User: Fold this.
Amino acid sequence: MVKTLSRPLLPGNRFLKFFLVFLAMSHFVSFTTNVRAENKGPAPDVKVGERLFNGLLPTGDGSKSCVSCHTMYTGDTMNWNPSALEMAKVAAEMDLATFKEHLLTPTGAMREKVHVKYQLSDEQLFHLQGYLKNLAIEGIDDKPLSINKLLIFLLLGGLMTIALVDLFFTKKISYKAIHVLIIVFGIGFQLKIVAHDLIDLGRSQDYMPDQPIKFSHKIHAGDNKIDCLYCHSNADEGKSAGIPSAGLCMNCHQVVRNGSNSGQFEIGKVVDAYENNKDIEWVRIHNLPDHVYFNHAQHVNVGNRECQECHGDVENMHIVKQENDLSMSWCLDCHKETMVDFKDNDYYKTFEALHKDLAEGVLDSIRAADIGANDCMKCHH
Ligand code: HEC
Ligand code: HEC
Ligand code: HEC
Ligand code: HEC
Ligand code: HEC
Ligand code: HEC
Assistant:
């Protein structure tokens, strides 16, 4: 009798026992690991480190807070200083002595300029680096903009629903114009959000991503007048213009190791990629759909077009920006307008009828469209 009575309770008891044993064991494990961690030495106080980093605790005689240069944005290409996250990844790899040296007795033109007057104790440095190690692992959570858009979209939907319900059922608001206004504007804004996102899905005029290295065309092609073709030599003879390898950068950066804006940090990445044979993962900006054929040599070499006609004044841009939308009408319009140097270019020898018209004055000039540049098959194979 007793057995049968207690039977239904048994499974529950068993679970309880398991649970208690598990609890005890997990406590024991965490206790022993804590002891082990303590044996290694004290853990840094990440909170103290964070306050030091943000300048909430004094770091020295009139010195600037770290965060004022090492900002907490993930996309901060226009800030020449290493972002907090990038810097933290480097700092996390340093031993405490090196970290101390970088801050208190810096060497190198830029470091001497930026890391000045810090009077941090060994203990403070320990906490500060602890915070940076933590940051390097956890990262910065930037919320994507599209979430906001989605919220606005849903909010508008909600407002419109309330307006509709009130219009037909609850009838709290007597002025019908208010309902109509809410619904019309609501639909209008929603359509705008949808249209914006859908139309722009494939096209990306003004697209300006952050690159893995703060490479500036203004400094290279502008200030230092390096020819576009020095780095994009393929544009003259091949389909794509090509992005130079770290090896080509090293032609100069073997010697130039200090940038006036970024010190050794950014050029250091080039050197690191070169020495360790790593690819620099440049983010591509211009991108035609697969069904369109475009050839650089045809335009740069045969058509004699300047890079700037299609890409804008790249030599004045720190960050390359897509100037044109690369739409079909953009291509067709230019082909209709642009005269080709017909007489002197061997490439056009085969167009005998056009040469005749030109010689007889029937045509005063030949445009790209006249020689078939706007035939569907030229661009869509
Ligand atoms: C005035 C701007 C500025 C301030 C303030 C600043 N830094 Fe920097 N920091 C830089 C620049 C610029 C570099 C790159 C220097 C270079 O590589 O030549 C750098 C580099 C570093 C590096 C990488 C070392 C290297 O060059 O490889 C660490 C680590 C660092 N900073 C930590 C800190 C900490 C911690 C603080 C606050 C106590 C701080 N910085 C304050 C501008 C600043
Ligand atoms: C010192 C080498 C160098 C020189 C000189 C140079 N570029 Fe670049 N270019 C690069 C690198 C590296 C990238 C990839 C990173 C970026 O987008 O900024 C690039 C990217 C570009 C892009 C964007 C490619 C894409 O992803 O769609 C265009 C367009 C471009 N360059 C045009 C030019 C023009 C025009 C000139 C001359 C005014 C020029 N470049 C001179 C190195 C160079
Ligand atoms: C023909 C020579 C040459 C080539 C090739 C070259 N650079 Fe430079 N680069 C320079 C010069 C000159 C500076 C300016 C140094 C200064 O600020 O005094 C510079 C500066 C820089 C800077 C630092 C900018 C600043 O002001 O802090 C970075 C980063 C850089 N280059 C990256 C690259 C990359 C990446 C490539 C290859 C795609 C490359 N460079 C190819 C000559 C060159
Ligand atoms: C007639 C317009 C036109 C001219 C002129 C032109 N480009 Fe481009 N460029 C484009 C288009 C379109 C793309 C996108 C190609 C694709 O996605 O297949 C592009 C892409 C690029 C890219 C990135 C992808 C690649 O091809 O490697 C670079 C770099 C570039 N161009 C550099 C240059 C340079 C440098 C010149 C001058 C020497 C130049 N372009 C002249 C239209 C042009
Ligand atoms: C800045 C003006 C300009 C723009 C923009 C332009 N082109 Fe052209 N394109 C020309 C000229 C000039 C020629 C004539 C050169 C030649 O004989 O090939 C040409 C010729 C061509 C040809 C070769 C036709 C043949 O005879 O074989 C193709 C294909 C072509 N373009 C594709 C494109 C595409 C695709 C785009 C847009 C992504 C584009 N072009 C944008 C100026 C332009
Ligand atoms: C000079 C080059 C060029 C010629 C010629 C050309 N196209 Fe296009 N076409 C493009 C480009 C570039 C795109 C990509 C547009 C985009 O991404 O917005 C495109 C896209 C398209 C699309 C896809 C729809 C879209 O907007 O993405 C179709 C369909 C198309 N073309 C048909 C044609 C037909 C039919 C012809 C002949 C009457 C033609 N094309 C001639 C360059 C050309």
